[in-house]
Design goal:
The protein is α/β, with parallel strands linked by helices. Helix content is 20%, strand content 33%. It is built from five helices and 15 strands. A seven-stranded mixed beta sheet has the order 1-2-3-4-5-6-7.
Length: 202
Amino acid sequence: MTTHYADSAVEIYRYVVGPLANNVFIVRCRATGDALLVDAANEHELLLECASALGVRSIVETHGHSDHIQAIPALRDAGYEVAVRAEDAAMLPSYDLLLEDDDVIEVGRLRIRTIHTPGHTPGSMSFAIEGSPVLLTGDTLFPGGPGATQTALGDFPTIITSIERRIFAPYDAGTIIMPGHGADSTLGAEGPHLDEWIARGW
């Protein structure tokens, strides 16, 4: 298992799973070995193996779209609690806890802050690792623009507001974004293109 990102406080592991190449992240406290899994997307046998090896204690979902939740039943059966924002909870096969905006999830000595970033879905969440320059953005922000909003639950003005006010405004240019699919980027690389995204409308 190779680390996707590491600093003095955190190790992050990334697994690309399923037919839509979803990113699953395991965020691990280096001091204690406790970890959090972000998006139980698919390939539950792989995720169960990695969760056990890396000290995962619980699971959070960035949103409820079907490609992000396929492994939830198997992981819950194995004893892992799953948390999701209330607006997306009905999209999951099952869950245990509801996330509020600006919650702090303690993972060992790590503090992971929840950020409600609606637009891709009403309950979309991003997760900031306090003290580390990392933002897990789910399908809200990708390299090259916002996540898809041409769906029944999507709304383009809402996702733009989320990106502008909840991501670009409070976090600096050096912040690394780790999205729900594809490669990482930084807010410094993406921020200058906001007006282009607004103009194109997607």
